[in-house]
Structure formats: C-alpha cells, structure tokens
Amino acid sequence: MPQLRLIGFPQDTSLTKEEFSSLPLPSPDGAYTVFPGFCDVHVHFREPGFSYKETIRSGSRAAARGGYTAVCAMPNLNPVPDSLAHLQPQLDLIRDTACIAVYPYGAVTVNEAGRELARMEELAPHVIAFSDDGRGVQDESMMRSAMETAKKLNKLIAAHCEDNSLLRGGYIHDGAYAKAHGHKGICAESEWGPIARDVKLAAETGSAYHVCHISCKESVEIIRQAKKAGVDVTCETAPHYLLLDENDLQEDGRFKMNPPLRSRADREALLEGLCDGTIDMIATDHAPHSAPEKSKGLAGSAFGIVGIETAFPLLYTELVTKQVISIERLIDLLSTAPRRRFGIPLGREFTVWDLNQQTTIDPHDFLSQGKATPFAGRNVYGVCVLTQKDGVAAYHQ
C-alpha cells in the first residue's frame, strides 16, 4: 500500500487512507500527499467564441492536471453571458465537455460595455457570481446599482479594477524597466483607484465584494484597512505577482499580462498580505492565447498567460519549501478559502501529488491549448499523479 499523507481536508471528511489503496498511482509503495481538490475562481476557458485559444474541454483537462476540481470561468466570451439565452451555450458546453466542475460567471453589464446592467435576476440561479472581467466598470453609479442588485440576489461582485482614463496606451508596469526600455507604462493607480471607490460602495450598500488579481502595494493596504472597518471584501492575487516583478521582465509576450508585473516593493507587499491574511486566496487568471497572439513582444502581444498547470508546483517550491508559508496555508489559499467565499462545496474530490519529484516546466507538456508562461524552464518540486472528482479520475499520470 502506498504511503499517503492527507493535508487540508476538513476534520469531518469521510475520506480515509484505505480507500486510496486501489487508486491508479504510479508506484504501489510510493510516498504521496493527498489534498482536497483545488478551486480556482478566475480562469478563462474562452468558449464559446474563442475556441482557437482554449475550449472548456482542454481547459478543464489542464485544470485537472494542475490539481483543480472546481473552477470559475470568466464571462469575456462571445456571446457575453449577460442574459440566460446568452449563457445557455456555455452551460451546454460545460455539461457536455468538462471533466471537472466549471462554474460560469455572469456579466455585470450588457456585453460588458458598462452602460446597462445585465439581466442579473435571470442569471443568478445559474452563475457563481457577477463580473465584467477584462474590463473595469468605469461608472460609479453603475457599480453601485450592480452591488445593490447583487446583494438582493445574494451574489458576489468580482471586480476587475482598472481605470481606463489612466491607462494611456500602457502595457507593462510604469516603472524602471519601462523607462529603461522605452515602453509605455500602466500606473498602479489605475488599479488601486477603482478598488478604493468600490470598497466605499461596498460599505455603503452592504454588498459582498471580491477584488480580482491585485498586483500592487496600495491595493493590499486599501483592502487591509477595509477589512478592519468591517467591509465585506475579499481579494485574490496570482502566482506570477507573488513570484515575479518587473526585474524579471524579458522582451517576450509571455511576460505580458494585465495587471502587469510590478515593482519589487509591490511583490513584497503582496507576500506580506498573503502572510497576514489580507489576501484571501490565490487564483491563476489562466488566460490562454494562440501562439501568434503571444509572439509580438511586450508591446504587441495579447495580455494574458497560462498558469493552471503550474500554480501548485511553483507555489510549493517557492513559498512552502522556502518557509514563507506553511503547506496548510497554501492549501487554504488554493482550496478552502475560495470554496468558502464563493459557496463551492467540496465533495468526494481530491488530488494526489508526489512532492519529492522534481521536474522542469515545459509548455510543450501542457494540456492547455495556451503555452505562454514566464516560468518556462523553471525547476520545481511537485508532480500531480491523480486528480479525482466524484469517483472518476479527471487526470492521472
């Protein structure tokens, strides 16, 4: 029987070591660690509308390889899920092709255009939360109305915070690298300004509010103070903001994402926020694009990188083995906390890892159709050998 260590499961779990004895593990006498299935509240599976970048089938298979048994799929699709009729094609694809649980977001505004609220009431029973991800809600009164409606529906608003008036054509962080290499920068205020506005609105409306992919020190502090004041706010960051900064940039599209990699001080503030509980969870913002779309350097490439297959090995290697956080805290960030906030149950689902095995990140091995990652060639510890959902292996090595 393999040596098994269970970490991160609730105390009342009905799973026992004995029922793992018949699983298709690589070695019958190997040493493995079993975690509750990870939960990513921020992925882009691109379907319907952009299946040349990713499909629900390929994205869910990639997620399972990364240890995920539940994901929340963002609504920047075609059609945008701003009504039940526009959501239905996505629901059908999830039913027919997903190998794990995929929970769709509903749009906040019609076509994510920011001018008219989506049909939130009819969407609410079918979506996990509401977001206009990829675009910030620019109008304060529109966001207030969205929060008031979401509160009535008992749903979260998950906000992509970006002030378009401050972008000025930028595409990487407005810092030392941009200045040294003649690039147009995106200032940090374009992120933290809308967060400051929204936590005020959340306090006034009583809405449950979640901030997507924070990247700068001011965002951490605004959310820290809002929590102290009793605002119902949570936030996420992504592995690349914790492990990279502008000093790691290269003239390559696989280093371009939105928000951008910021300064070392910003990265250190994010790590501090992770350690003190200001940051509630880690999401990947898995954002696949085609190879041509990511081959045009920092200026011309599409925003977004893939990350759902590499998140756990990177975070385990860089944060746990280096004693920044404990393995228990990492599992809370990847599984327990996102499920708790978004109301996603943990059924009979788990992921099994060989934490002693070292491997090199190679995009050619990805199950995702997207291959753009700034971590290509990075040596990491941790290989997923099995991910199981409801008694069925969604992935096995």
Describe the structure.
The chain has helices at residues 56-65, 84-97, 120-123, 140-153, 176-181, 189-205, 217-228, 239-243, 264-276, 297-300, 311-320, 327-342; strands spanning 3-6, 31-36, 38-43, 68-73, 101-104, 157-159, 172-173, 185-186, 209-211, 233-237, 281-282, 349-360, 379-389, 392-396. The chain is α/β, with parallel strands linked by helices and 397 residues long. It has a single domain, classed as Metal-dependent hydrolases (TIM Barrel, Alpha-Beta Barrel), CATH 3.20.20.140. The longest helix has 17 residues, at 189-205. The mean pLDDT is 96.
Q: Provide the CATH top-level class.
A: Alpha Beta
Q: What is the count of structural domains?
A: 1
Specify the biggest β-sheet. 5 strands, mixed
Run of helices and strands: EEEHEHEHHEEHEHEHEHHEHHHEEE
Secondary structure class reads: alpha/beta
- End-to-end distance: 18 Å
The CATH fourth-level homologous superfamily:
Metal-dependent hydrolases
CATH fold-level label: TIM Barrel
Shape: globular
What's the arrangement of strands in the largest beta sheet?
A: 1-2-12-13-14
On the 0 to 100 scale, the average pLDDT is 96
Number of helical runs? 12
Number of beta strands: 14
Strand proportion, as a percent range, falls in 15-25%
Uncertain regions: pLDDT < 50 for 5+ in a row? none
What does the radius of gyration come to?
Answer: 20 Å
- List the quaternary state of the chains: single chain
